[in-house]
Amino acid sequence: MVKHDFKVVTQWKGGRNEIGTVQGDLINEQISIPYSLGGQGIGTNPDEMLVSAASSCYIISLAATLERAGYKDIRINQQSVGTASFENGKFKMECITHYPKINVDNNHKDNLKKRLLKLLKIADNNCMISNAIKNNVEVRIEPTLV
C-alpha cells in the first residue's frame, strides 16, 4: 500500500469574525466565514474548499475514466454546487451536485451516450473526495453531453 500525506497549515487569531490563513504546498489563501453567513467574506472558506475539492477530484476522475475507456479529445466544463443547511444550531453540507458538460471526439459521441451513466458512476467511485464524504454528503451527477 502506498500512502501520501497532504499537509496544510492554518492560522487564526481572534474570534469568529476575524480572518485566518491556510497554506499548503500550492495553496496560500486567506480564510473567513462567508459574508452570506455573517462573516467577513474575505478569501475562501471551508465550505467553498470542500465543494472545490469534490469538484476538482471528480472532474479529474471523470477525465481519467473517459480516457481509460478509449475516448479522445476530452473536454469537460463543470459547475458544482454545494447545498448546506442549518438545523438544531449546526451547519451541515447536505449535497454536492456536479454538472459536467462533456465533449469528446465527434466519432465517439454516440457510443458515449450508451455508456455515459456507467462511466459517471465509475468516476465517482474512483474519486477520493467522493469516497471520503460518502454516507455523510450526498453527491449527485447531472451530466450534459455537448
UniProtKB/TrEMBL annotation:
Superkingdom classification of source: Bacteria
Gene3D superfamilies in the record: 3.30.300.20
One Pfam family in the UniProt entry: OsmC
InterPro entries: KH_dom-like_a/b, OsmC-like_firmicutes, OsmC/Ohr_fam, OsmC/Ohrsf, OsmC_Ohr_Peroxiredoxin
Protein name per the record: SACOL1771 family peroxiredoxin
Species: Staphylococcus capitis
Source species taxonomy: Bacteria, Bacillati, Bacillota, Bacilli, Bacillales
